[in-house]
Specification:
The protein is built from 21 helices and no strands. The protein is mostly helical.
Amino acid sequence: MNPLKKLFKQTAIYGLATVLPRMLSFILVPIYTAVMAPGAYGVVTKIFAWFAIFNVVLAYGMETGFFRFYSKEDNKDTVVSTSLISILGSTTLFVLIAFLFQTGIANLLNIDEGYIVYVLFIIGLDALVLIPFAWLRANERPVKYAIVKISNVAINLGLNIFFLIVLPEIVETNPDSAFGALYKADFQIAYIFIANLIASGITLLLMLPVYLKSKYVFDLELWKRMIKYAAPVLIAGIAYTINEVFDRILLGELLPENIADSEIGKYSACYKLALFMTLFATAFRMGIEPFFFSHAGTDNPQKAYAQITNYFVILGSVILLAVVVFADVLKVLFVRDEAYWDAMNIVPLIVLASFFLGIYHNLSVWYKVTDKTRYGAFISVFGAIITIGINLAFIPAFGYVASAIATVLAYGSMMLLSYYLGKSRYPVPYNLRKIVFYLGISILFSAIAFYGFGRSLFAGIPLLLIFLALVYKLENDKLRQIFLKK
């Protein structure tokens, strides 16, 4: 099979594993915004920001390290068992210590102590499935990967609907119902974390076969090499997570206490409208990451890498413009309470930032296949410095608008820096003229539709149709070669 066609086929399945669960998760946004005020949703978002940071710490780059060594080592079973033992041991140790100091941790993170136990259990369970999921991807088993991922979020979604909508209605209409024992008033935030905890526990059960099949041989020398490879990935992961979620935490610290949670809630709800770009970029990345490593030793892999990036930019440019044009339609569908709509002006910025991040992931091939992951850490730290600096300087005056601008500048800088550093260290023949052309036209049309014509569909839809016609005119033959050629 044409390797590019195989890539897009796997990307489609991984996309199903990513898009459907996140689309199900996206349904939670109208639910949350319907049953919670912006302030309560802000609390949830802030805690999930800490989730993201701790998930990266507990993974410490082992997932990427696993991919690298699984593809190059002869004894793959030893790579699996060493990785499993490492994650299992570190996660258990972390959770035990955290339980001993949970009060201090809650105070340090500015989280209600009542939620900290949920946080510790969830991040522990999520860490334990990292290597099993990586094993599925490395062995090109995207269907099982998709089934487990979709099951996780379906359970999470079902429990959220039950706890937040169905249970209160049952108790209200039938106070003597047996379900009354499960219901507590003003318990929405805790219900959300209980749903996450149950879903994470079931996911671990579904992935247990990978643990049960392992021979549990720990190769210390291999582990040291994996940790050495993974350490820069950890630094990059922390920096990346800072770029992704730390603005919520800084908003909570830098805005007046009486409005902070509410502003975080508005910002986070409208931020979700960039999900369509995030889904596309994530699905694409999950397809290309194994592809990068498996084709690194072939003749002229750089040509394939360049083609992949070209098509990512073309498809991403269409998504950017489409989301911006239909932003007001999406807000009615997904952000039900008008109290959240004050933050709609950040949507184009966040969608563009997500696009820049997707391009950056495509450009990152040069340091991953050459084992120069320290450059990935350097680039991500550079972005994190921009994120933190702009947020610290401008949140007090401009609020979440400063956070949105910081996100665009951080990811844009990372994209450009990765291209500049990779140009001399692992040259890839990117078609810069094409990339800049499509990206520039998409940004221009988006700005005209959203800011120039006040988000009018009468202006936005014609611009989108013109852009689609342009893509069809210029790329029709090449896209046919990828998807139709055997």
